[in-house]
Amino acid sequence: MVKTPDELALMRVSGKLLASVFEMLDGQQLAGMSTLQVNDLVERFITEDLAARPASKGQYGFKYVLNCSINHVVCHGVPRPDDIIRDGDIINLDITLEKNGFIADSSKTYMVGEVSPAARRLVRVTQEAMWKGIGQVRPGAHLGDIGFAIERHAKKHGYSVVRDYCGHGIGREMHEEPQILHFGRPGTGMKLREGMVFTVEPMLNQGTRKVTTEDDGWTVVTNDRKLSAQFEHTVAVTADGVEVLTLRPDERPVLARSA
Predict the structure, then answer these.
(1) Of 14, 108, 162, 212, which one has the greatest count of Cβ atoms within 10 A?
(2) pLDDT digits (tens, 9 = 90+) for 70-126
(3) What is the pLDDT of residues 178-208, one digit of tens each?
(4) Which residues pair with residue 84 across a beta bridge?
C-alpha cells in the first residue's frame, strides 16, 4: 500500500511512459479506425517504442492491452475489428503499462470530430470531477473526502456517479488496497498517508447510475443507453499534497487550477 522512495521513483517512470502513450494517441485520427486497430497501435507503441509491457493483457484472462468504451459503454469495452469509431463519438481509452515491475493506470475520454454540446459538457464535467477528487489528496485526508468532492461536482451538473466500479491501490499489482470510491462522506474512510499510491477514476453518466455487463462478460453499459464518460490518473500522496504520476503536459494548467 505505502511505497518506499525507491518504489515511488520506479512508479514515476511507469507513469511518465504511460502519459506518452496518450500523447501519441492525441496525434491520431481516431475517426474511421476500429477499436481493435487502436488496441494494436497502442500495443506496438508500448512494447516497441517504450520497451515496456501492457499490463492489462492477460490480466484476469483479458486478451487486449486496453479498454475502448464508446458512448453508452461505461467501462471495460472490448476492442473489436467491427467497432468503428465515428465522427461525433466519445470514447474512453483505459490503458495500463508496467515497467521495472511497477504498473501505472490512466484513462482519457476522447471527443471524436464534431461532438454534440451535451456530450462535450459531460466529458468536461467528468474531467473536472476527477480533478476535484485529486485535489482532496493529502496526508491526513480521508478516502471519503475524495468521493464526496467527486459526487458533489457531478450532482451539481446533473450527472450520476457509477458506484459499481472504483479506483484502487496500485504498484507491483494492478489492483491493490485500498478501494477508492467516487462517492462518500467527508471525514470518513481510511486516512491517507505519505507514500500511498492509487487511482482516481470516476465514471459519470448522463442518466441513471445503474449499469449492466453484456454477454461478453466485460463490456459495461448504461441501463438507459445514455452517454457515460471517464477520466483516470494514478496519484501518490506526498508529504504536502499529491503527485499525479500519469500527468500529461497538456494537463498541467488543469492541475494548477484544481489545487
Answers:
(1) 14
(2) 999 999 999 999 999 999 999 999 999 999 999 999 999 999 999 999 999 999 999
(3) 999 999 999 999 999 999 999 999 999 999 9
(4) 34
CA distance 109 to 70: 9
> Does 259 score more than 60 pLDDT?
no
- The beta strands (E) that lie in the chain are given as 66-70, 73-75, 90-99, 102-111, 160-161, 167-169, 176-180, 197-200, 203-205, 211-213, 220-222, 228-230, 233-237, 242-244
Residues 6 or more apart in contact with residue 185 via CB below 8 angstroms: 144, 148
Mention every residue, 6+ apart, whose C-beta is less than 8 A from residue 88.
Answer: 112, 113, 114, 115, 116, 119
What is the distance between the alpha carbons of residues 212 and 225, in angstroms, rounded to a whole number? Answer: 10
